[in-house]
Amino acid sequence: MDTLRARWLPWALAAAVSLLPLRASVPEYRLGDVVVEDVVTPVPLVIVDPDATDALKQKLAQDVLFVVRHSPQTTLAAEVRLRAAVADTRARFMEQMQTALSGRSPAESDLGSPEQVAVVKKVAETAPRQFPFASFVPVWIRGQSDETLTAALIQPVRDVMAQPVVGSKTESPLPTNQPVRLLAVRSLEDAPTPRELEGPVQRISAGQILSLWRARRLVETSFPAAQDAMGRFAASFVQPNAVPDSELTDLLRARRMEGVTANETFVAAQVVARKGQRVDRKALAALAALREKSMIGALQSKLAQEQTVASQLSRQTVWIAVGLGVICVTLLLILWRLRSRPGGALVLTSGGLQQALPSGDRMSLTESPGSDAWRQRALVAEGKAERAQDAIRSGVLGWMKEKLYQTLFRHRAELLSAQQRAQAEMSELERRLEHLHTPLQKRITAYDIQADYTVAPQSWGSLQLYAIGTYQPEYAFAVQPGAPLVNIAGGQGAGGIWLKWKANGGFNWTKGPWTVGWNAQYIGAHLGYLRTSPAADATSILNLGNNGEIPTQVYHDFSLSYKTGADRTGWRWLIANSQFTVGVQNVFNTRPPTMPLTVWNLSPIDSLGDARLARYSLSFRKQF
C-alpha cells in the first residue's frame, strides 16, 4: 500500500497544482494613471528606464563634440596661387614694357614715364584685382627680385589661415560657448576616411574659428596704412579651410548612443509601483516587464505541470495495460480449463441410458427398473454443474470490478487531499510576498560647471582659458534591503570614491607655430575609509589624524608644442607638416597622500594619486 501511494503521489500533486486558480494578473495601467494598490514583483527584474536612458543618451551626445572638418593643405594652395599670380603679372608687365620701349629692357629712368603708365593700365585689365603695382613695378623695372615683397604678402595669409576659417558663421552656425572637434582632412569636398575619423581628437573653442570676412580683415589690418593695397591684395587669397559638418556630428552621436540604455534593477519582492503614484514611463516599462515575466513563468509552469502529468499518465497507462493483459490471460485460462474437462452428462440412446465417456471407456447402461431414478439424478447433477460454472464466472468478474472501483475512489481521494494542501501552501506564499516591501534605494545629486573664454589673435598671440568642475553633495544608497539611506559623498563606497569637489582648469597660449599649455587638476578632500567598513579598518584610518580625511590634492601639467610649416625644400621635407610636443605631468613633483593597508585597501597610496610623481613625455606627429 505504501509503495502504491508513493508512486501515485507526484502525479496527484501535479494534478492538484494544475487545478489551482492562476494568480491575479498584473494590472493594466496607462501613462498618467494612478496606481490603486502596490504592485510587487515576485522575481528579479531588469528594465530599461526610458527617462534615464534619454538623459544618458543626451549626455553622451554632448560628449561627442561638434565636428568641424579642417584642411591644412588649403594654406599651401593659397600660397601657391599668390606666388603664381605675382610671377604671371611680372612676366606680362616686362613683356609689354619691352614692346613699348621698342625691344630694349626697361631702366630706372622709365619709372613714371608715359610708357610705364600705359603698360600698367593695360596689364591691370587682366591682372588680379587690387594688385599692388605701386609696390612691385619699381622692383621689376630695376630688375631686382620680388621675393621679399612676395614673402611679406604670404606671411599674414599663412598666419591667419593657420586657424580654422569658415565661409560664414551665420549660414552654418557653430555651438555657442562650447568646444568643437577639429577634424583634419585632406579635402573639404570629399567625405572623411575611417583613418581620419579614428585620428587624435583636437579640441578647440568655437571662438577660435574665424569667418572668412574676419580672416580677410585681419590680413588687411596687418599691413600699415601706406600699404593698404598690399593688404587688400593678400586678403583676396584667404579662403575657407574649414567646414562645419552637422551631418557627420549627428552620425557620430548616433553611433555613440547606439545600444546605450540605463537599466533599473528590481529585486524579488520589491515594489515596482506604489499605491497613489502616477504611472510614468519607468513604471510602465516595469509593469510590462513584470507582465511578460508572469506570462512566461505561467506558461513554463503550466508546460512543466503538463509534462509531469503526461509522464505520470504514461507510466500509469502502461501498468494498467499490463494489469488488464494479465487479467485477460487469467480469464482465458480459467475458461479453457473449464471447457476442456470431460463431460459428466448422461445421455439416453436407443438402447437405453448411457454415460458420456471418452472413447474406449464408454460403458453402456442397460435399462433396469431404476433407470428413471438415475435419469432424474443425472439431470439434477448436470444443472448444478452449469450453475456452479456460471457462479464462478460472475464471481471472478465482480471481484475484479470491485477492486478496480475501490482503487479509483482511493486515488481520487488522495488527489483531492493533495490539491487542498497545495492550495493552502500557495495562499501562504502569496501572503508572505505581499508583506515583503524592502526595496534597495539610491539617490544622487550632482552639479557640473564649465567655462571657456578665448582671446582673439593679437600681436602677442591668442589665448584660450578653460575651467570645468563638479560638485556632488549627495550619493546615498541603502546597504541592504530595508536599511536606511547612507550618504557616502566625500568618501568611499559602492565600488568607488565619490568626491564632493573636483575640477580642472588651465590655458593654451598660441603664437605662430608655438603653443604652450598649462593644466591644473583639483581633487577635493575625502574620507579614506568606508562609512560601513569594519571598525578595525575605520580605526586604523582614523589613527592617521584629521578624522581619517585625505587632504586636498592639486597636480599641475605643462606642455610645449611646435608646428613646422609646409616647406619641403631640401632636408626640410622630413619634418614638414609635423608637430613636436614636450610634456611634464605633475610639474612640482607633488606626493600623493598615504594611507594604511586594510582588508579592503590594498595600496598605501591614495588611488586618485600617482606614485610615479613627476613624469615626462615626448611626442612627434606628422601629416602626409
Q: What does the secondary structure layout of this molecule look like, with pairings?
A:
Blueprint: H1 2-18, E1 39-41, E2 45-48, H2 50-63, E3 66-70, H3 73-100, H4 114-124, H5 133-141, H6 147-160, E4 165-166, E5 179-184, H7 194-197, E6 202-205, E7 210-211, H8 212-221, H9 228-235, E8 242-244, H10 246-257, E9 263-266, E10 270-273, H11 281-339, E11 346-349, E12 352-355, H12 371-434, E13 442-458, E14 461-478, E15 485-487, E16 491-493, E17 496-498, E18 501-511, E19 514-523, E20 526-527, H13 535-542, E21 549-550, E22 553-563, E23 578-585, E24 615-622
Parallel strand pairs: 3-5, 4-7
Antiparallel strand pairs: 1-10, 2-9, 3-8, 5-6, 11-12, 13-14, 14-15, 14-18, 16-17, 18-19, 19-22, 20-21, 22-23, 23-24
Radius of gyration: 52 Å
Class by helix and strand content? alpha+beta
Runs in which pLDDT lies below 50 for 5 or more consecutive residues are 1-24, 343-367, 436-440
The coarse silhouette is: elongated
Helix percentage = 40-55%
